[in-house]
Amino acid sequence: MKMIFLGPPGAGKGTLADLAVEERKLPHISTGDLFRAAVKNETELGLKVKGILASGGLVPDDLTIALVKERLSAPDAASGWILDGFPRTIPQAEALEALAPADRVVNFEVADEVVVGRLSTRRVCRACGKIYNTKTMPPKKEGVCDACGGEVYTRDDDKEASIRTRLENYRRQTAPLIQWYGARGKLLTIDGVGDPKVVLERFNKALA
Ligand code: AMP
Predict the structure, then answer these.
(1) Any long-range contacts for 44-48 (C-beta under 8 Å, 24+ apart)?
(2) Total-model pTM
(3) Ligand 1 midpoint to CA 32 (Å)
(4) Cα 35 to ligand 1 centre (Å)
């Protein structure tokens, strides 16, 4: 199964993808994680996108599409995947349709005020990318990842100014994809508010 997770930043796409891939044995491909790894490793791509990520802007389509093309050509992505954070623009969606069309697009609906609350309390492991929340899902030991012992930190773009920019970008550039995929009969919309396990149940029911 080839699936896209759509929704505003903080909709819970990454958290849900982590839970869903465990059950479905698919790779979880997050373009945000791929860009953050490039920044951390100071690759050529990483140096190009570092400032864009920190400000909450979108990386240009050509760079993003090239990155996804490369990742989807890896052997583990041959029979299916969950794409989290891609596509984010219509040209990206068109490129993906030409490359490897998704079977389903899951749209997680979450109101802006919930998103802002979640992002300002979100924390992430710098080493393995596991997602935490200081209020609802804190690590057992503050600042230390339960899964790998890595440092749990606040993403640069989870700070107030970047959160607003990201939400604006989402409404302007990404939300039109809801209609785009709806018109192609691929869209499933799920209420993304609530405990991740409850949202996972809604997701499994919708796909059944
Ligand atoms: P995310 O972890 O999905 O919130 O992504 C973090 C950041 O990576 C975004 O704010 C963008 O700067 C960049 N990014 C991730 N995916 C894309 C994409 N599909 N198109 C453009 N930029 C992206």
Answers:
(1) none
(2) 0.91
(3) 5
(4) 7
Q: Give the integer Cα–Cα distance in Å for 96 and 27.
A: 17
Cβ of 85 less than 6 Å from ligand 1: yes
Sort 177 into a burial class: Cβ within 10 Å, 0-12 / 13-18 / 19+: buried
Q: Can you give the residue ranges of every domain in the chain? A: 2-8+17-27+79-198
The pLDDT of residue 11 is: 94
Which stretches within 144-193 are classed as H helix? 160-169, 176-183
Residue 178 contacts residue 155 (beta carbons within 8 Å): no
Cα–Cα distance between 196 and 160 in angstroms, integer?
24
Instruction: Find out whether the beta carbon of 166 lies less than 6 Å from any atom of ligand 1.
Output: yes
Residue 166 bears catalytic tag: yes
CATH superfamily of 2-8+17-27+79-198: P-loop containing nucleotide triphosphate hydrolases (3.40.50.300)
Gap from CA of 59 to ligand 1 centroid (Å): 7
Length of the chain: 208
Among the listed residues 2, 36, 71, 122, the single catalytic one is: 122
Residue nearest (by alpha carbon) to ligand 1 atom 5: 32
- Our answer to whether residue 88 is catalytic in this structure is yes
In tens, the pLDDT along 14-48 reads: 999 999 998 888 999 999 999 999 999 999 999 99
Task: Give the count of alpha carbons within 13 A of 84, CB side only.
Answer: 24
